[in-house]
UniProtKB/TrEMBL annotation:
Transmembrane segments: none
Region annotation (Disordered) ranges: 93-113, 663-684
Residues annotated as domain RZ-type: 1241-1319
Protein name in UniProt: RZ-type domain-containing protein
Organism: Phascolomyces articulosus
UniProt entry tagged with the keyword Metal-binding: yes
Molecular function in Gene Ontology: zinc ion binding
Amino acid sequence: MTSHHDTVSVLTGTIVYGIVKKSAKQQQHRQSMVIMGVHLKESQLSMVDWTGRYTLMVAGANAATIMPVLAWYHLHCEQSSDTLTTLATRLLTPSTSKHGRGTSSGGNGGPMTEDLPDYLMQLDLDLTCILTSQFHNLKVGLGAKGKRNGTQWPSLPETYQSLPPSQRPPLYVLSPTQLSAVQHAMTHRISVISGGEGTGKTFLASKLVQLLHQALVSAQCFQPILILTKNETTLDSILNQVIKQIPDLVRLGKILPETSNIAPRQVVKAAAPNPTDPNRKLSYKMERQLAILQGKIDALWRYRQQVIEADPSVMATTIPPHYSVALQYGYTQRMNMTVQPNKEYPLDEIWQLWMGPRSQQPQLQQEQKQRPSFGTTYQSLNRTDIQETGQQVPPIMEWDYYTDRRGWIEGSKLRVGNISLAEDWPFINSKPGSHVRMEMKNAWSSTVKPNQVWDLSQDEKWQLQQRIIDALVKVIDVHISGLLTQQVQAAKIVEEARLSKWTSICRFSRVVGVTADFAAAHAKVIESLWPRIIIMDEAQSILESIATPFVFGSRVQHVIMIGDAHARQRPQIHNSKLKGDPKHLDISLFERWRLGGGYITRLEEQWRMCSDIVGIHDSLATPEADRKLLITAPIAGENKGDQCTLSLEGLEERAYLLDYQVPTSSSSTTSSSEGEQGQDEMDPQARHIIHDREIRKADADEARFVAHLAFYLYQQRYKAKDITILTVSSAQKILINMALQELIRSSPSFGSCSTNNHLHHQGTQSHMIANVEMVDQYVGKESHFVILSLAMPCGQPIPEGNISLALSRARSGLYIVGRIPELQKTGWNSVVEYMKVRGICGPNLKLKCQKHPDQITHVENLYDFQHVKNGGCSQLCKTLLDCGHVCEETCHHLKHSDMLCQKECNRPRPTGCTHACPNKCNQCRNRCPPCDIMTKMERPCGHMLTGPCQKLPKWMQTKPCREQVVHVLPCGHEQKVECHRTSDPNIEQLVTCCEWVQKTLPCGHTVEHQCCYKPICTERCPERLDCGHPCPERRAVCTASCTKQLICGHFCTKGCANSDDHTDRCLEQCQYVCCHGYRCGRGCWKVCNMCMEPCPYNCEHLQCTQKCHEKCDRPPCNKHCSKTLDCGHACIGLCGEPCPPCKKCHPDITCSISLRTLAEFEDDELAYMLPECGCVFAVDSLDLYFKNQAKNGEHTAIKLWQCPSCQKPIYTALRYNMYIKTEIALVNQIKAQQEERRHEISQEEKTGIIQAMNEETKSGINNIVGGRWFVCENGHPYFIGDCGGATQISSCPHCGAVIGGLQHKVVESNRFYGEFDGSFQPAWPGQPQ
């Protein structure tokens, strides 16, 4: 393209689209208009002359490909009514469109059906959602194709038409202009609706969504409705109003709290991996890969920081082997240590010694910045504003999911391998570690030889260290770069899968809600949804460049834009070069439509603000702006907001501008100059909260004034949620929150009230009084009472962009606090002038007492609120309280039942109490606390009782007098006793005489004893008992232990007193140990567990093939042991047996059988050591001992084998296991027999059992028919009751054998057991005998 100006400029670009349009006049002259879109490079954008004209020249090479496309497009436009062409043409050229202008389609009229979207043709819509509850199920039939006035909207039935207009019930929940907007939107492809603040635009948008959703369902259209808003709050307000009727909606954008109704319908939650997702395994795999890569990157970053800081634990791993040996050798020389072969010395300590103290090292290069802590990255992206764009980054995952993933990364704590030892470095399965070791070797060898490392100067050491650091950092950076590349590739796969799932979820949803910022960040996702309807709220704030790709979508048939044509604020664009003249890229489609003269339906009724506030808001409009906006009928003047405002209490005006004056002093005695000087001082409290700014005391006091005004409204019994403080400065918001916290903590205002006490219990939560918000962050919200603070504590200019927003948030009251001289220099001047004319502007605010209307208080600074500290006036209340005191608080509006009376309590005291109640009246309420004053009370005996006053009457009855008094006992002695015992008739039994007296006993001995006890002789009896023990008195009370040893090896536990009664069931733990050394786990009285392992008695000559508990099938081996002991001498033991001590090293060990020491043994004489006790014997002597003991000695009786020397039981001596196992088997047989005898039933027990089992037959015919006893095949008895015949089969509880039978006959393996109860025959014949 070339310019037509004197200076020729050539621009090259690409044609991206072309729209061919012919008017009727142009068709006659065979002319056409072509709208071309040209894509220029960014470098050429600054060269564009936006006011000039250009000639378009198409190059031949590109024309061959472009011209056929334009020819097809031209043919397509002529032969079809393509939706994209229609929408694009009308949006971009509204003034030339057929239906761009005209009157509203209200009433029963309608547009030509050619302007009706195709999917609405011939549809009947249920209008219940916009009808009042009195009327429902009314429908509207949208026009048939090709007919005019095909849409007839319902009207009131004829029965109501005859009534006067004021008595007619409303048919619609909408205002007249809202209804007109709905009718126009439902019958036009493009509908633009404009309304000021509070005119119900968001409510109208929700109703349009419900109607259009119904239309799509009826027309069986499966494309979604796309709701596009500028702010999150507006989007949430629309979705919250429709979610009950349209549950299948999806919201894209900021993550909402779980308490929100639409929280489950967020795409981030809906797209989270779940068990029903077919791609969950791949998703988990990729997410796991991302987490592992991130963990490796984190570990390398930490390792890199250690390298840069020259951490000795890391630097020591970079030392090559030859240098390591040299450093260790030098270390031992300097530490005066002996060099030990194959010993590793601590290299990190050697490195520190070699390098010297770190404090003397030069400043290391700080290439690594402090990395953010856990969670900071996500929070910085999701919860803070980006300074460059002012927008928030849209979230792509849930916070909980991110914390789990990050927590796994932090918890795994991957570590980089040791360079000198790692096979793969830096991690397992990484590159071989040889490459980094080679780099370290080169760094060392290029500087110094191994034998010279300790000769380097300090500077040379530092240079070598820096060379190592540089080389290692370079290697680390290569690895980090590789990991980042892998992470980007994996993240791309995950992101594509996530976006694909988002698209799938949104396509299967009827309504998709998204903010403009989120749509701009995910344009491809939004474009791929193929919406059929687009509804834009706050359209005046959405950039044309953001909305155009979606509005011009291939399947869009219906566009509705809702906004405020009166708004001054333009869409935000952060490249100042593109703003305003001549480029005008900071424009919205809404504004382009308005400037092009497109038809706009205007909302005129006010639903939010009361009339007093509406006037202030409308003062912003200039006559020129009004003329441009006045497209429909003039404003009707009806204000529906007046019908839902709260009654005004405590104030005279619903709107007021307070010209805040800096107070000269907090007291009347301080001079003016001193007050002004004090206000110029810095506020100490604000300095602690806002660290980076200096806040004057005057500015802090203005914030405190705003806080006091909010608290005053709260005292009028308005709820905290109905009071909002809006600021235009973040610093002012902080100061007001600080002031509210100070007010809650320390304000004496109504300190006796339980409500204020409740505030104190809540700590320092300022929202308990009012909400404090920034104006910019209060979009889409409202409050009954708004206090607008326009102070800028930091001296910045007052912002003018959101004046309309700030003035339109209040429903019932708006109070502006600012400094008029500063406001008059800004865009607020028109508001100031308007409020001056109306007389609602001044240096003080009038507060009117509810109870005393004649009391008016003027407040102009925070000190004036002392006159209305309780929210009323300065008069005393003087109302009689429930407690009987008079309320001495100043006038208030809270119930006296909530009052906390601060007077001293004077309620009647309990009987006997003469003390005054120490509490305040409010602390006692209905009952005073018990009196705890220590008091004395006289007892009937004359002694005094001391204790808490409230307990003394009860103690007088329950606590006896414990004073010590002298009492004469029957024995004549005097004894001190407690006073209460002297009146007890049983005192002789209760009190014992403790006097010591002497008495001669019948045995002749004299003993000294206490008078109350019978004496006994304590002299030892010279006689002895039959058992041989000294006589205590008689054998039956002998306390000596029994010397009887049981067969198990334990001793009798019944004592010597039972001479013929010994323990028959040893309850000790069994001491048996098998040949493997495994201990029996049973009690000593039970049969020992038998070891089923193969017998361990094996040597190189003989092997045993039996089980461990069985007797060995091999003889003892008599060969000499071939082993050499640790001392180097030959073993003197037997083959396969434990080696005894060396007779040369331990010559003094004595054999207790042959009574010889090892030194006296013959040279070829063998020794044997018992494993249990370690006693050593000559083999021949010990063999003879076992043989003789078994044949003629003690072991003719059953007894466990013991060591001949120490008498310790022997279990594991393999050479003698034949003797040992034989004896153990006999002991186990005796144990089993003892248990059988113990379980035998005596005749007396048997008789009792028979009587109990036959009890049921005693009422029969003389026991002829009745229960009978039988035994199983193993001889265990059992009883069959009733008739004595078997009717079922079971199993024996003792052995598990089959018992019982069928048809009154027991099984063949059982037999009749008549001898048990003396019966002669079974009850039923044919039983086995």
